[in-house]
Amino acid sequence: MTNTYRRLRTEMEPFLKGMNRKLKSSRYLSPNQIETFGLEVQSELNVYKEDEQLHGFFVIIDFIYEQAQQDGKWSSLERRLNPFFDTVTHYVYTASFSKSKKLKARFAKMLGTYVVQSMRDNDAPYARLFSAYMKTFSADQIDKLDHYFIGQDMHNASRSFCIAISYFYLYIGKESQAMVLLKQASPVLASEAEAHIALLTQRERYEQVLRWFDTFFPNKSDKLGTLQEYYDQSTSLHDSSSIQYETWDRWLKAPSFKRFKTLMSHYSTKQKELVLDYLLPHLEERLFNEANKLVYIQILLEKEDFERIQRYFLLNEANPLELHEQKQLLLQRLAEARPELSLPVYHQFIIRLAEKRSRKYYVEAAEYVDKLAFIYRRLNEPHRYNQFKQILLKRYQSYRAFIEELKRRESNINMDS
């Protein structure tokens, strides 16, 4: 609990107590009443600075929830308070948090923190609010939350936490972790798994949908309710020769391109796409191994996933001087097929080589400058090459040997031809 939080809790106490009385004063609150209360909260927070509004929001949610629990009345108030929490969050997020990149990032971080801190409390509203707003978070915020959750012990987490965070994992593509966490909430109701199943269906992960049904609803004679449509759709669209993911899990322990080709030869085009969607993220986690890198780039070369090829070079090849023949071939293919995507790779390689401060590396860097000139010529953008070249000469003007090597080659590069 921060000093700001404590101060705001004290300053806002009259408002908090008044709002708490209003929420408890009637057996039923109409949607209009709840909206009115939401606007009152927004008005109360508007007198504070942006960052204080964020803390104040959590002060209000905390106070109202804690009072209901302390009075032993949560079960009777839940159907009133959860819509109130939803409305307050909607008004404050829409009017304030979503309009400030900094505040939006802070909201994501703080909400994630509250979710973890209350993970053993099944009634706490934070997991449900997290599920409602996580799709509005940026990729960077999602990535940070993922790293934050990795360090948490979730073994004794509540059902509401497991359901919410398993959906988060599914949303970011961590299907195995999503299933493991949802198992902790078993038995799962159809309504609790509907968002998960809907997301898998939306992504055309029909094989996975059927696996989830086998795991969480093994007795198909039971009424599946709203899930029945998803089950029927996945069954009808799933290819008759199902993908054996266990086989690919074993393959991942010792990747081999030859075996990859053999296994893939039996699949339809759709199945091949499903396998690659499953394999590549797992293989990317294993790129610390050179043998795995070579298998990965052979797959990329065959698949011609040029965005992934660019990302591979930018993130995984620190020393351009030691590029394996297959990697050189991959980079060449990228430059030929998608020259615009290859530019950041060549820029990065040139900088990395120049920074080595050795003639051997200067020569290689100059070679990449020559290749870069050719790519810019193909793109008919000589001015961009000239801009980069001038920046390079200025940045490394004290690297005499490198500058000499670049100037020695200038006569061979005619950007006007």
From TrEMBL:
<protein>
    <submittedName>
        <fullName>Uncharacterized protein</fullName>
    </submittedName>
</protein>
